[in-house]
Amino acid sequence: MRPVRQPSPQPVHSAHHAASYYAATANRQLVLPTLEGREEADVCIIGGGFSGLNSAIELAKRGLSVVLLEARQIGWGASGRNGGQLIRGVGHGLEQFNDVLGSDGVRRLQQLGLEAVELVRQRVAEFAIDCDLTWGYCDLANTPADLAGFVEDYEHLHSLGYRHNLRLLQAHEMHEVVGSPRYCGGLIDMGSGHLHPLNLALGEAAAAASLGVRLFEQSPVTRIESGSEVRVHCASGEVRARQLIIACNAYLNDLEPYLGGKVLPAGSYVIATEPLPEALARELIPQNMALCDQRVALDYYRLSADRRLLFGGACHYSGRDPANLSDYMRPKMLKVFPQLADVAIDYHWGGMIGIGANRLPQIGCHPQQRNLFYAQAYAGHGLNATHLAGKLLAQAIAGEDDSDFQLFNRVPHITFPGGKLLRSPLLALGMSWYRLREYLRR
């Protein structure tokens, strides 16, 4: 077995990016100041990930002045360290919201899940962002029941007017998309794909700055004063604004208790191999697609632009990360691709994603503070949903048609029981039950 090359992981509260493949291959360096003194704006945004950046871009396009505060570096959280899979859809099991939104409202959410991917496509094109955007994705069926679900998805997407090519695959056709015998079918979607998420975030930050957005890094917010004018305090400065957007997701902590209780931070992990020979890369993923299976503890993977396999998954709800991410993730990779037994792991990293109880992104307005807006809890599928959130928040704040925003705002989101100390163990117990039920059904 080849040795594992393991860069020293960054501490969880480090001011710098995780020691990931993405950080090592970032194609630009931003030089952004720390907030000093007082700034005034129409809107203050807390959080320099995709939600905050795209809210800033959309607001600036509408002529509003914007200040964005990032506690560490742009894209430091899930936005800059995720699996890079750009997949259609928002939420899980949207039919559960029929009683709240009606069938027309649910159908509109489904359409917005398709439009969200197009927003990313448009953003990359408009600002010529170099982020290795590649089209092609395949859902992988672990069981015949999964494949039957893909048939329903295929038919439903056509009923929504989905304009991209879809193709159902049977077991004997799976070699066309993946060099593993684990799957009994698949659904190809050429309207979804993959990209380099940190380079996208850095490109969007540069785009926001070009539109006049004032961006500050290393500026953690210590306190928020509510009122008709919001005052957002940092260690060495403050921002005064008419409106506030909180876009901290899994890293909100105790800054805003009402929102913090509705999102659960969960750990997710990725490893990246050394660059693979072209023939081996083609054997693993012949069409260079992003791929994802259907298990509760799902696997997702793709090739990077320099032919590394990026393999992720193993979401942890316990609040405790594995002692060694490479040792933890490598066996999972080898179950799918045993042909990588002699391939070195060059990078491993993890981070927190935000999960809500009903798995629908939480996009809305605070019920007691009408000038406080938020976006969070993307449940690991936020690359497109964050871009949608930015547009919807900007429409609502700018006084435009906010009917799509109100669809999300009308959905109630429960506060996780048990408070900060018990909510992670309780959810971990619940997810163990789902994994057991999945195993028994096989």
Automatic annotation (TrEMBL):
Domain FAD dependent oxidoreductase: 42-395
Pfam families reported for this sequence: DAO
Gene3D superfamilies: D-Amino Acid Oxidase, subunit A, domain 2, FAD/NAD(P)-binding domain
Bilayer-crossing regions: none
Keywords attached to this entry: Oxidoreductase
InterPro entries given in the database record: FAD-dep_OxRdtase, FAD/NAD-bd_sf
Matching PANTHER family: FAD DEPENDENT OXIDOREDUCTASE DOMAIN-CONTAINING PROTEIN, SARCOSINE DEHYDROGENASE-RELATED
Name listed for the protein in its UniProt record: Oxidoreductase
Organism listed in the record: Pseudomonas fluvialis
The organism's taxonomic lineage, starting at the top: Bacteria, Pseudomonadati, Pseudomonadota, Gammaproteobacteria, Pseudomonadales
